[in-house]
Amino acid sequence: MTAWLLRVLVILGLLGSAWVHYDLWANQGFSDIQTIGPLFLVNVVAGVVIALAVLAWHHWLPALAAIGFGAVTLVAYLVSLTPAGLFGVHEQFKMASEVWGVVTEAGCVVFGIALLLAQVRSRPRAVARV
């Protein structure tokens, strides 16, 4: 039961991040930004694909992919907050979409780790034969 709840939370985080990036790409002008625009679309597709994998394939690999997705996306956003920015984009953490992005991506990491641990703990142990 705990694994299912964690699985749902990971999926919500992945789809939430995908939606935030799609909304920014489609409605906030990010589609016009060189490099970042295409990367936002990659994020959308990756979020949906990994969410489907977490739903359908009860293996440690989709959970690990969700953790990586959330961590990489969150780190990219944090880099965009620095004076150097990310590919010329400088964010300021002012918009609601930025807050939701951070929440959903952190959720991917935190709930993904919890799901991964739950899956490892519930795996049947091999019995040594003497």
Record the SSE blueprint:
Blueprint: H1 2-27, H2 36-56, H3 60-80, H4 96-122
The gist of it:
This protein is mainly alpha-helical.
Q: What general outline do the C-alpha atoms trace?
A: elongated
Unreliable residue stretches: none
Major beta sheet, specifics? none
Q: What amount of the residues lies in strands?
A: under 5%
Mean pLDDT: 90
Q: How many helical stretches?
A: 4
End-to-end Cα distance: 35 Å
Keywords: Membrane, Transmembrane, Transmembrane helix
Transmembrane segments: 36-57, 64-87, 99-120
Describe the structure.
This protein has 130 residues and is mainly alpha-helical. The protein has one domain (2-122). It is 73% helix and 0% strand. It has 4 helices and no strands. The longest helix has 27 residues, at 96-122. It is elongated, with a radius of gyration of 17 Å.
Label this structure with key terms.
single chain; mainly alpha; 4 helices; membrane; transmembrane helix; transmembrane
